[in-house]
Amino acid sequence: MSAQNRVSNQTKVITGNAAAAYGAMLCRPDVVAAYPITPQSELIEQLAQFHADGILDCEYVTVEGENSAQNVVCGASMAGGRTFTATSSYGLVYMYDAMFNTAGYRAPVVMINVNREPPGIHAVCSGQQDMISVRDTGWVQLIAETCQEILDLTIQAFRLAEDYSIQLPVIINYDGYYLSFLAESVNIPAIEDVDKYLSVLKSQPKRPTLIPGEAIGCGSHGIGMGYVELRRKHMAAMDRVMPIVDVIDEEFGQAFGRRYGGQIETYRTEDADIVLVTSGSAVGTARTVIDAKREEGMKVGLVKLRLYRPFPVLRLSDALKGKKAIGVLDRSICFGWGCGPLYMETKAISSNIGHVPMLSFIDGLANMDITKEHIGQMIDTIFKASQGDSYQEVTWLP
Amino acid sequence: MAVTEKKECCIFETEASWSYANSHLLCLKTGEWRTERPVVNREICNSCGICFTYCPPQCMVDDGDYYKANLEFCKGCGICAKECPKGAITMRSEGDYANECPK
C-alpha cells in the first residue's frame, strides 16, 4: 500500500481545512509554499505533517510571509511545477501585487483562501470581503459550501487551472470558522483515482516553461500593443472558464459520483416565483428554510453561486429569467453602490432577466450567524416585493 | 501555442508573454523613442568594442570592421559616446535626419 493510500481511499470526519489539505496532497503538487494565518493555519500544518510523514513528496517552502509565498509558487509554476498555496484575509492582501504577476504570467497556481474579514477593523472573524477585494487580479475564483466540496473543488481546481485552454491561477474560497473548523464526514478518494481524473492534462500540449540554460523569459515588455494583446488573451481565457467549469464538474461526477452543478447550483428554482441567490456555507441553512417555505406553499427557489470570477452571467440569467422577485445574500459590502457586491453583479444582468424587484441582504459579517430566522425574514421580504408591496432595496441583518 | 480562436496578428505565440532572448525578446521598436543618435567616426574608431560592451540593450552591432548602432532599438541614451575612449562617437540630433526615409 502506498504512503498516500494509508490516509486516503476512506471516509473520515475531518475539518474543512483538513479536507483542503487532503485535496491538495492527492493532486501531488511539486511545490507548496505558504505562511500560516488564522483560520487557515491548520491546513498548512496538515500539509507539513503529510510532508514530514513521507505522504506528500514535494518541495515545502516555509516562507517568511504571504508575498514570498505567492512569488515562490508563481516561479515554481513557471518552471513547470504543480504548485499550491493557501492563505486568508491579511495574507491574501499581503500578496496582492504578486497575484497580478501570477495571473499575468498565466501561471496555473492553485490557492485556497479561507474567507475572513480583511484589515481595517481587526476582525478575526468570517466574511467574504477578502475574496471580493481581489476580484480583478485575473484569478479564477470558486466558492465551496461543505467540507466535501472543499476537497472535491481543490482537485477540480488543478484540472481547471492547468487545462491548456485556460492556463490561469485559481482560488478556492470557503468560509473561515464556519467551514475551516467544522468537522464533517468527508470521502477521501484513492490517489490512483485522482491521478486518473487529472491524467487528461497529460494528453494536452505542454505549456511553455522556463528551461535551465535557455535564454527564455516571460513577463517583460508589457508596453503598448504587447500588453493589449496579453489582456485580450487573458479575458478570452476567462470566458472559456465558464463552460469548462460545467464540463469539469460533470467529469468529476462520472469519476467520483459527486456533482455540484458547475458554475451555479439551482435548488427548486424551476417552478419558483421568487429566488434567493447566495454562496458558501450559508447555502445549507438557506436550503433548509426553502424546504420549510415550500411546505407552507410558497414557490421559492435557491441559487448557489459557485463561480465568482468569471461571473456566471449566462447560467445565472437562465436560472433567474421570468422570476417575480430576486434577493441576494452577501457576506460583504460594496462601497459606492451601498449594497452587497454579489447583489451588485446580479443586478448588472437585469437586462437579461427582466426588470423585477431585486433586494440586497447583508448578513454574516464578522461571524454574525446567518440564522434560519434571518433567511426566513429575507424570503418573506422578497415574497412581499413580488406581490407589489413597496420594499427597501438594501437590508442589513441583524 | 496560444489558444486563439480566430487568426489574429500576435506579438506573442504563447498565452503569456514568453519570448527567447536570441530572437524576439524585443517586441517594441524602442528606436522610436530616440531624440539623438550615435554616429561613429570611422577615421577615429579602432573597433575596440567598448561601446558594444556598455550599450544597455546590446544594440551596438558589429558591422564588419566597425561598430554601429541598430537604430530600430537604440534609444539614444548616449552611453556609448560617453564611454568611447577615443571620442569617436558623437550624439547627433534626430532633427538632422528628419528628411531621411524611415526604415
Which descriptors would you attach to this protein?
heterodimer; A: 398 residues; alpha/beta; Rossmann fold; 2 domains; seven-stranded mixed sheet; six-stranded mixed sheet; 14 helices; 16 strands; B: 103 residues; mainly beta; Alpha-Beta Plaits; two-stranded antiparallel sheet; 2 helices; 5 strands; 18% strand
Please render the helix and strand layout as text:
The complex is a heterodimer of chains A (398) and B (103).
Chain A: E1 10-15, H1 16-26, E2 31-34, H2 41-52, E3 59-62, H3 66-78, E4 83-87, H4 89-94, H5 96-104, E5 110-115, H6 129-133, E6 140-143, H7 147-161, E7 170-175, E8 183-188, H8 191-198, E9 216-218, H9 225-256, E10 264-267, E11 274-278, H10 282-295, E12 300-305, E13 307-309, H11 313-320, E14 325-330, H12 341-347, H13 350-353, E15 358-362, H14 372-386, E16 394-396
Chain B: E1 18-20, E2 36-40, H1 50-54, E3 60-62, E4 67-69, H2 79-83, E5 89-93
Antiparallel strand pairs in B: 2-5, 3-4
